[in-house]
Design goal:
Blueprint (H helix, E strand, L loop, with lengths): L1 H41 L10 H66 L3 H9 L4 H75 L2 H66 L28 H11 L13 E5 L2 E4 L7 E4 L2 E5 L4 E3 L4 E9 L2 E8 L2 E11 L6 E2 L4 E5 L1 E2 L5 E10 L2 E3 L8
Antiparallel strand pairs: 1-4, 2-3, 4-12, 5-10, 6-7, 6-9, 7-8, 8-10, 8-12, 11-12, 12-13
Helix pairs in contact: 1-2, 1-4, 2-4, 3-4
C-alpha cells in the first residue's frame, strides 16, 4: 500500500506543478484579453466625420483616452513579461534540481546493479544467510536480502517517475517560453498601433493649432456650460445637505424626547413604590424644597441620521471597487481637475468630475445604493443626483431620466439614457461627478475601471 501511495505521489506532484503554471498563464491571458476587448470595442468611438473645432476637440479627447488605455495595456504586458521571466528563472532552477536528483538516483541504481551482478547467484545469497553465527543474525540477513530487493525495485520506479517529472518540467518550461514569445509579439503589435494613434493625434493637434481663434471660442463655450451646470449642482447639494441636517436634528430630538419620557416614567414609578412602603402615625414632616432643574447640556450637532452615517461608511469601504456609471464599453475622455491639453497652446480644461464616452444607447447607472436627491433639466438635458449618506454621485447629460426625486436606487440600477449628439456623429458622453457633502472628489480613484 505504501509503495502505491509513493508511486501516486511521484506521478501527481509534477502534474500539479504543471497545472499551476498553466493556470497562472491562463489568468494572465484572460486579464489581457479583457483589456484588449475593451480597447477593440472603444476603437469604434474614435470615428468622426465632422471637421468643426468642437468635433475635432472632442475627437482629440477620445483619441487621447484611447492612447492612455493602450499605454496601460502595454504596461500590463510589460508586467506580465516580468512575471513570466521570474517564472522562467524558477522553472530553470527546478529543472536543474530535478536533473541532479535524477543523476544521483541513476548513480545509486547503477551501483546496486553492479553489486547484484557480483552476488547474483542463489548459492551466494544462501551462503551469506547461513554463514551467520546465530539464529538472530540469520533472520536479520534474510530480512536484509528481501528488503534490498524491494529497495532496488523502488529505486527503479523512482528513476522512471523522476524522469517523467523532468519531462513534465521541460514541457512546463517550454510552455512559459512560448507565452513569452507571444507576449513579445503582442507588445510589438500594440506599440505599432500606439504609434499610429499618436500620429493621428498630432495631425488633429496641428489642425487645431491653425484654428486657434475658433478653439479658444469653443473652450470658452464649454467653460460657460460647465459653470452653469456646476452652479446648479452646488445649489442642489447645499439644499440636500440642509435637508439631511434637519433630518438628523429631528431624529436627535425624537430620541431626546423618548429618553426624557422614559426617565420621568421611572421617577413616577419610584415615587409610588416609596409612598406605598411608608406607614406613619405622626404628622408628616414638611417636604424639602424641590431640586432646581438640572442645567441642560449643550446639544450635539447632527449633520446625518444614523442610516446616513451607516450608508456613508459602507460607501467609503468600497473605494476603488465601485462600478463604472455607464453600461457600454467606454473611454474616459476628460479627467478630473485642471490640466493643459498636450500639444495645444493656452488650452486649459478644468473638470469637476470626469467625462466618459460610451456607445449610442448607453445608460447611466447608480454606482451604489442610495436615494435620488434631485432630478433637474438644463439646456434640455436631464441630470440626476443620488445621495449615499454623506456622499453624492452626479450623472449629467442624459436624454431622459428613469428615476425621480425620493426614489431609492440600488447598485447598477439604470438611472437614465445618456444623450447622443446627432450633430457630432452621435457622440455619447456621460459627465460624472462625486462629492462628499460640498467637497469635490476625483471619481477615478473610487471606480473599478
Amino acid at each position: 500500500m505504501k509503495r502505491v501511495l509513493l508511486i501516486l505521489l511521484l506521478v501527481c506532484v509534477p502534474m500539479l506543478l504543471l497545472a499551476q503554471s498553466n493556470k497562472r498563464i491562463k489568468e494572465l491571458e484572460q486579464r489581457r484579453s479583457t483589456l484588449q476587448k475593451q480597447i477593440a470595442e472603444t476603437e469604434e468611438l474614435l470615428k468622426t466625420t465632422n471637421k468643426n473645432v468642437g468635433s475635432q476637440l472632442n475627437g482629440l479627447n477620445a483619441l487621447t483616452g484611447q492612447i492612455e488605455d493602450r499605454r496601460r495595456y502595454i504596461d500590463n504586458i510589460n508586467n506580465d513579461l516580468q512575471e513570466v521571466d521570474s517564472e522562467l528563472v524558477v522553472l530553470d532552477q527546478q529543472l536543474d534540481t530535478l536533473k541532479l536528483s535524477l543523476e544521483e538516483k541513476k548513480r545509486r541504481y547503477e551501483a546496486s546493479l553492479k553489486y547484484l551482478y557480483k552476488n547474483h547467484s542463489i548459492q551466494e545469497k544462501l551462503m551469506f544467510i547461513f554463514s551467520a553465527e546465530t539464529l538472530s543474525q540469520t533472520y536479520n540477513r534474510l530480512r536484509y536480502v528481501r528488503e534490498y530487493a524491494t529497495y532496488q525495485r523502488l529505486q527503479g520506479n523512482e528513476i522512471i517517475h523522476k524522469q517523467a517529472e523532468v519531462t513534465q518540467k521541460q514541457e512546463e518550461l517550454q510552455s512559459v517560453r512560448d507565452e513569452k514569445i507571444r507576449l513579445l509579439a503582442e507588445r510589438a503589435s500594440e506599440k505599432r498601433k500606439l504609434e499610429i494613434q499618436e500620429q493621428q493625434a498630432q495631425k488633429v493637434i496641428k489642425d487645431l493649432r491653425s484654428r486657434q481663434k475658433g478653439l479658444q471660442d469653443e473652450i470658452k463655450k464649454k467653460r460657460r456650460e460647465a459653470n452653469q451646470l456646476n452652479n446648479q449642482i452646488d445649489k442642489l447639494i447645499a439644499i440636500e445637505i440642509e435637508n439631511a441636517r434637519k433630518r438628523a436634528e429631528e431624529e436627535a430630538r425624537r430620541e431626546t424626547e423618548a429618553k426624557r419620557k422614559a426617565e420621568e416614567a421611572a421617577k413616577v414609578k419610584a415615587t409610588d413604590t416609596k409612598t406605598a412602603n411608608v406607614t406613619t402615625t405622626t404628622p408628616a414632616t414638611p417636604a424639602a424644597p424641590a431640586d432646581k432643574p438640572a442645567t441642560t447640556a449643550k446639544a450635539e450637532t447632527y449633520t446625518m441620521s444614523k442610516a446616513d452615517r451607516e450608508l456613508s461608511t459602507n460607501f467609503a469601504s468600497n473605494r476603488g471597487k465601485l462600478p463604472m456609471p455607464i453600461t457600454t464599453s467606454y473611454i474616459i475622455v476628460s479627467h478630473y481637475g485642471q490640466y493643459n491639453v498636450a500639444g495645444l497652446r493656452n488650452v486649459t480644461l478644468d473638470n469637476k468630475g470626469i467625462d466618459i464616452q460610451g456607445k449610442p444607447g448607453a445608460q447611466a447607472r447608480a454606482i451604489f445604493n442610495g436615494k435620488v436627491a434631485a432630478v433637474f433639466q438644463l439646456n434640455g438635458l436631464f441630470n440626476v443626483l443620488v445621495r449615499h449618506g454623506s456622499y453624492i454621485s452626479v450623472y449629467c447629460n442624459l436624454s431622459k431620466s428613469d428615476v425621480k426625486q425620493g426614489d431609492d436606487v440600488t447598485t447598477r440600477q439604470v438611472l437614465g439614457t445618456v444623450y447622443s449628439d446627432s450633430s457630432d456623429n452621435n457622440r455619447t458622453v456621460l459627465h460624472f461627478q462625486l462629492r462628499k457633502e460640498k467637497d469635490k472628489l476625483n471619481p477615478e480613484v473610487w471606480l473599478n475601471k
